[in-house]
Structure formats: C-alpha cells, structure tokens
Amino acid sequence: MDIYPEYYKNEVELNEVLSMPTTEVVEMVKNLEGDIIFLGVSGKIGVSMARMAKKACEKAGIKKKIIGVSRFSSESQRLLLEESGIDTIKGDLIDQKFINSLPDVKNVFYLAGLKFGTSGNESLTWAMNSYLPGLVADKFKNSRIVAFSTGCVYPNVSYKSGGSKETDIPRPIGEYSQSCLGRERLFEFGSIKNHTPIVLIRLFYAVEMRYGVLVDIATRVFNEEPVDVTMGYANVIWQADANAMILQTINHCESPAKFLNITGPELLSIRKVALKFGELMNKQVTIKGTEEDTALLGNAELSFKLLGKPRVSVDKIIKWTAKWVEGNNKVLGKPTHFESKDGKY
Fold it and tell me: Whole-model pTM?
C-alpha cells in the first residue's frame, strides 16, 4: 500500500512525512543502547531526522533522550523540536568550551558543516569542516559517531561507470570538497587513536519539496530560465529515505571508520528531468550547454545491501516537486550548485 500522499498541501504535512519512521528504524531504536544527540541539528536534514528518531522511540514504546544542538538561528526550528519532545541546547559548536560542556551521549549524529558561501570565506570553511570534527571526535571518543560527509570528495566520473564506490580514492575538486576530505581525515584519526566506532556518510543530494537538485531544476523551468546541462547527470534520494537509512547506520559504526555512500539507485539525466518538469508544469524548457561525459555520481550498492533500497522513486518526487513549485509554495532559496564542475560554492 502506498503510504504517501498524491502531493503535499503544506509544510506541516511535508514535515510530518519527512519525519515518519520506517519499521526498520523503529526496530533499530528498540535495540539501541543509550541516548542520541544530533550536532548541527537545525540544518536542512537534522530537524526531520531528529524527529524521526523521536517518533521511532514513541512507536517502539521506549524512553530515550533525544538532544538537538545548534546555534538555532531559526527559533521556529527549535520550537518544532521541543514540541516534538526533543531537548535542545543552543550554542556555537566551533567554541571548544561549548563542545566540552555538552553531555556525554552514547550515540552521536554529526550534521554540522559549511558549504554555501565558501568561496571567499575559505578559512571559516576549513574551521567548520575540518577543525570542528577534530573537537567532536575528541569530545565523543567513547561514543558511536555517524558523521555526515559528502559525495563531493570523489572526482567526476563517467556516467557509464555506475558511480564512485567507497573504495575509490578521493580526489576532491575545490576548497569546499577538500575541507570535507579534511573532515573525514579528522574523524578517521579519532577513530584510530581512540578506537571510536564511526561511520562517515558520503551523501549525494538528499531532496525534498523545498530544497535540492530537483527543486533547482523545477524552479528554473517554472521561471522559464535556462537549465544548464553541462553537469549532465546526478543521483538523488528522497530525504525521508536518507533519514531512515542514515539513522540505521549507527549499528554499522566501526574502528577504523567505515565509509558509506547514501543516494538513490537511479542515474538522472538533467536534460530529461528538465523536459519532464516542462511537461508537468506546461512550460517551455530552454537548455543551456551540452552534457559532458563525466559527472559527480555515487554507487550506493553497499548501503542497499546493509540498509535496503530507498522506497520513493524519482518519478514520484518529480511529480511532487512540480506540484509544489507550481503552487508557489515555500522553497529555501539555497541552490545546490549541482552544476558546478570547479568545486566553487
């Protein structure tokens, strides 16, 4: 039975679906020892992921403290978390004293990082993406850590290759991607030095109605702006599926740290997606550029074996996104810059 709506009417409905736990997540929390803390919880993914963990505990009938840590520039996100029964701690993670003041929690999900506006702000980028992970790895050396990284640590590969695998050598392009490799290396160091079990999540484009590659394309089509297809291919995954899969990775932490690609199984043609949005929204599509043979792509077969495949197809997400954008609903206004091939964000 399809548990998803035909389309999303508003943010309240969308937020509830994004935080709806799967049976596998409910079973995971039943057997998970200790409480859970989310560092950098107020970003694009953290709120829905923390709420999913809390809902899973409620469905499992267990009491487990869920804590969200952030600067909380948006008080509405903090309020939503607290209304959901999640404890919040406000502070700047880059402050070592603040990091050290946090409670010792057995299960850590690290979501902090800086991407947008990194060009021209390189020192802060490295501090957030490399220095901070070192502080976290030291503070939570006796915990299990699931840390968000990015597929951007890989080089562009042929669209015929099936995507980069976890065993491939990272070759990051640009300072943002280099600083993310720095993040991985600092967590790796902490994992080896302190025998801390860690999973590093190389995520390729989680999407929902307000943010992501598909929203970027749909918005351009709707506004009758050119769609650049130079980066001609991409992988995406529905954010609720990413949330569920990543929460389950807490059971796969290892020392030395384990790497895991998280993305969808489909290879998307940016051109074909743009044309589909044009058809759904009755808009003329203007294509800019020509597809190159290489793109930033990930092979997630390992995560599928461990965690199962995503439940929501790209076709369904495209239809949802077209309806959302066409209805002038809220988007975050943070382009992914997926078309960038020089690593500048």
Answer: 0.94
